[in-house]
Structure formats: structure tokens, C-alpha cells
Amino acid sequence: RKEVEQDPGPFNVPEGATVAFNCTYSNSASQSFFWYRQDCRKEPKLLMSVYSSGNEDGRFTAQLNRASQYISLLIRDSKLSDSATYLCVVNTGNQFYFGTGTSLTVIP
Amino acid sequence: ETGVTQSPTHLIKTRGQQVTLRCSSQSGHNTVSWYQQALGQGPQFIFQYYREEENGRGNFPPRFSGLQFPNYSSELNVNALELDDSALYLCASSLGWEQYFGPGTRLTVT
Is residue B96's pLDDT more than 90? Predict the structure, then answer.
């Protein structure tokens, strides 16, 4: 079983839509959680850390459910510039596990 | 920009050769992690260095080795290159848990 699993998509949504991504992790001892975005042929960029209480940054909201071992990312009012691959990342001990990424395309 | 730099940008090597990739971490960051990203996949954790010591390792064979220097810059060495080693190699620097990535080195093994 993979440490981190994500639906690869693709998600194709119109501008202004709300879209949600989920990610599950296998190790209940995992400590830290993150969402990164990666544009085509570029490096991943930190989008936000994910806290147990949930956190919001503008149009982006991240949630962590430790009991069910999943994290989520909600994007409201999608913009064309949100088109990218979204990677969830889980830290367990001194190792970081990335999902395969979920591809999002926002359509005009 | 993150302030993390990597060199070279691109590299072509032949199977069986050895390669060294370099990474300069963001100022003040004492931890460097290395990742391998194959096309269409998420980055795979190779190892992490903290204050010049290996601090965690993923599921990679011993022919993948590294170093971290007193200024916290780092090298990734890969011996006996195989065709499957062709990938984007990313380094990330951090002070806490949040990592900031460099632009990567694209390695092609022929």
C-alpha cells in the first residue's frame, strides 16, 4: 500500500467553480501535512501547511482528519492561474511522502 | 523565488557512469532533502541531511549517496547509473518542516 494516495484526476472546472481534492495516508504516526502545487516542468511550491484545526489562506482551505487519515484542499472561485498539479505531502519521522498529484485545469 | 539553487540544469550521462548534482540551500536553512521525480509521478524522497549528517533515507540503494557541507550546501552522488535513474532531481531546503524546492536538475541516462 502506498504511503500517500491521491486521485490523479484530471479535474477540469470552469472559472469561478469550487473544487476539492482529497488525499489519504497510511501511517497513523504521520506528523506534518502539506499541499504543494507544481506547474508543468517546474519545481513544487509550498501552497500551505495543514493543521488539525483546519486552516484557510484566501481562496484555499485545508483540512486534516486524523481519525480517517485524510487531508483535503478546497479551492473556491477558481482562477485560470490555479491550473497546476496539486501534491499532498505527509511527513513521517524524517521522511517525506508525496502523492502522485492531482491535475487541475481551470477553463475560461 | 525560494533562493534554493541547483546545478547543473540538465545533464546527459551514459549507463554505468557516475554523476554529482549540487544544491545551495536558502540562507539560514540547515536541512537539505533530495528527491527523484520521474515523469508523471510525485517526488520520491531519497534522503535528508541535517547539519552535515544524514537524517533520514528513503527506499533508494546505496549507490545514491550525499554530502552536506558546513555552509549547508549539499551534493547528491549517484554511482553506476542505470536507465531508470533518468528523472528530475530536486533538492529542498528547510529550517522547520516546510520545504522550499530548487528548480531541479534533469538527468538523462542513455
Answer: no
